[in-house]
Amino acid sequence: MRYLVPLLLACVVLVAAGPARYTGTLYLTKRDGTPTFTAGVIDKDKGTAWATFDDGEYVLSDGGNGWGVLYLNLNPKKLADNDNTAMYAAGYLEGAMTWQQIWDNYKNYYFGWFSDKSVPKKAKEFFDTNLKYARDQIDKKKGDTYWSEVDLLMNQFDGLLDGYNSVADSDKKLTAMDFFMINGNGDMDDILDSLGVSVTEATRKKIHRNRETLPGGDPLPGFFNDHCSASIRVLPNNADLFFSHDTWSSYDQMTRIFKHYDFPLSRAANEADATRRISFSSSPGFIASTDDWYLTNKGLAVFETTTEFYNQSMYKQIGPGNCLLSFWRSMLANYNAKTGPEWIHWFEQQNSGTYNNQWMIVDLKLFTPGMAALPDNLLWITEQLPGFCTSADMTDFLRKDGYWASYNIPYFPYVYDISGFKAMYDKHGDEYSWSKCARAKIFARDAPKVTDYAGFQKMMNSNDYKNDPLSDGYPDRAIMARGDLAKSFPVPSGGIDSKASSYSRALKLECDAINGPTHQSLPVYNWNTFDSVPHLGQPQEFNFDWVAMTPTGDQSAVRASFPHAMPALASSAVPRQEPAASVAEAVLPVVENLLAIL
After folding, report:
1. Which label site among 66, 357, 400, 587 has the fewest CB atoms less than 10 Å from its CB?
2. Is the model's pLDDT at 165 over the cut of 80?
3. pTM score
4. Which domain, by its residues, includes 270?
5. Spatial distance between the Cα atoms of 62 and 237, rounded to a whole number of angstroms
């Protein structure tokens, strides 16, 4: 449902040098009530929702760490009347407090999908139909457990939209479709390709055809097609358990927010009934991670890497009806699952066949440091394709090898074959092999050598393509790709962040994260090289280090006021990058470079 809620917002921010901080409390006085916002106050007694947002996307010298961090809480004392209203309030508060970051993120994503063109008619129809399907099912299946949970997320989604529009500048208002598209960004490529309308993908294929390693026009796995690296490491004698995830994507997607949600809804009689505390890496305007990286208070760690499919006939199974996009289903699973099999059960329903990933679910409750043997069900994976998911307990890999690694190639033979990887391997060789591709060999060489957490972080943020014979001189054949350093066709794409945690810290929903392309042994990334590519809201240079993310971080009220509702920046902060006078002006150098190469 949608609540029309006029809201007078004022925000308090820290105006000293460094990242801005916003705090506030939202009040609901009745079941279908009108929220009232009080800035600069965290009222845990009477407030329905409260939040702190630290905007850390600034240069290092001004105290920035590359991450925005959002702490968003609902008050269990105020939730007895209507959980849907509470979720709406949570979304509303987030949308209002992060509106500028949402706008920046939306503009960056839109340019990456459509350049300066309008949304293609077929794509708009797909998203319209799919969102209508979800709303219709919610209305038709009142009382159904599954769709009641979808309803909670839909109310959060609606609140996010309304909260944003309540404070956004008049020329920056967004629609439900705009929000739906950015939340479905992981699904977008498959949707556009299935409709035959992907300008972005057509450009990618032209670029790939110029790479001498793959004559014949087939895409080489790398920073254009691949999306993430991940690993789980169990130390000798089961002394500890580490896990990590690197996001690979376009650099214009480095406007990031790490989110800590605490939503103790009334339909959970007690905390044992359902997950309501989740910490996850995310982006402005998202209700899910989409990297993906989640820690839940049910002791689950959940992350994925994307597995492309090259079997073009599978696109026929993708349609807007009878399915939910991936971001809905991942959050449904996170909120309701206590084990790996339960997570998969929730996720595989309403399979959209888009954003097809290999998901890893680590059940930390089953691990004890120094235990004699690893129990079954510690690690489950599931691999999705249009029409089905294939899943299994993979704990035996941890027992035998001491690690599991994931790098965009399916493990299960049936998934590998039917998705077209087998045909690509037969045609092009080892870079399409689960066991012989560069990253498989790098993990096999390096993961067993990891003996401490610092060494694990170093491995997961590594790229030594100039010296590592397994990389063969390619900056995308590494655990953290650097597409901007490629010789033949440098592009602003590759690894954009790393997250890592250990057994004891993950149980407390704690981890470490670093935003930006790896610079352990490579130059720090600076937008000077690709300044014509829109990257609103981002620092010019990504010279950041690992940052501890904790759900109990400092949420104290700020110490100074700002004269209007929700400013883009504190007065002393580094100015945001503004768009070029026209999109054509912005992209002209990129197009000229592309045409020269093509």
Report:
1. 400
2. yes
3. 0.89
4. 12-512+521-597
5. 44
Structural domain count of the chain: 1
Average pLDDT over residues 337-343: 97
Residue 225: pLDDT band (50, 70, 90) is low
* DSSP string for residues in 550-564: -TT---PPPS---SS
d(CA 73, CA 226): 35
Asked whether 292 and 306 are in contact (CB, 8 A), the reply is no
Q: Is residue 1 part of a domain?
A: no
C-alpha 495: how far from chain center: 13
Q: What is the pLDDT of residue 59?
A: 56
Angle at 95 (CA atoms; ends 153, 150), nearest 5 degrees: 5
* Sole residue written with tokens 């099912």: 137
Q: Report if residue 102 sits inside a domain.
A: yes
Average model confidence (pLDDT) across the chain: 85
Tell me whether residue 165 is exposed, middle or buried, using C-beta atoms within 10 angstroms of its C-beta: 0 to 12, 13 to 18, 19 or more. middle
Cβ 191 vs Cβ 318: under 8 Å: yes
Burial 7-38 (b: 16+ CB within 10 A, else e): bebbbbbbbeebbbbbbbbbbbeeeebebbbb
The Cα 284–Cα 253 span in angstroms is: 10
384, part of any domain: yes
Helices (H), 168-184: 176-183
Contact 353, 382 (CB under 8 A): no
Find the CATH number of the domain harbouring 589.
3.60.60.30
Percent of the chain as helix, strand, coil, to the nearest 5 = 35, 20, 45
Helices vs strands, H then E, count in the chain:
16, 20
Give the strands of the sheet with 403-406, arranged side by side: 403-406, 229-234, 241-250, 493-502, 511-515, 547-549
Chain centroid to CA 373: 33
User: DSSP string spanning 528-540?
Assistant: GGGTTS--TT--S
Sign of torsion over alpha carbons 395, 401, 407, 408 = negative
Q: What is the amino acid identity at position 60?
A: L
Task: Evaluate whether residue 2 is within a structural domain.
Answer: no
